[in-house]
Amino acid sequence: MEATQSLRWYGVLAVLFFGIVPAVMVSLLVAQGRTPSAVGFLLIGGIPLVLAALVAVVRGFAEADPELASRRLHLGMALVAGADVLLLGGNYIIRAMSS
To answer: Which of the residues 39, 48, 60, 68 has an alpha carbon 20 to 30 A from that of 95?
Structure first.
């Protein structure tokens, strides 16, 4: 078994559960008007980060060289973490300041 096999699956799971799901949840909160409208501006930066993470993980998943695959997967997971901080942390801060 290849050394990066588990890293590949963790990258996919990270993008799904920590990237796409929070972006959709925040988008739904904004669309339904259940959060301050300023949270919508966080989506301008958060969604491209999630898409870039998705691209990095897909490229890492398809890469044959284990070293390059590891770099791309780590980059994808770092982008997901940045998107989480921006979307979820920003949502919390804006909500705390508005109430």
So the answer is: 48
Q: How far apart are CA 85 and CA 19, in angstroms?
A: 11
The three-state (H, E, C) secondary structure of the chain, written as one string: CCCCHHHHHHHHHHHHHHHHHHHHHHHHHHHHCCCCHHHHHHHHHHHHHHHHHHHHHHHHHHCCCHHHHHHHHHHHHHHHHHHHHHHHHHHHHHHHHHC
Give dist(CA 63, CA 81) in Å, integer: 22
Do the beta carbons of residue 70 and residue 4 sit within 8 Å? yes
Residue 51 to residue 1: CA distance in whole angstroms = 29
pTM: predicted TM-score of the whole model, two decimal places = 0.92
Helical axes 5-15 vs 66-84, angle rounded to 10°: 20
Amino acid 1: pLDDT? 53
Rounded CA separation 64/62 (Å): 7
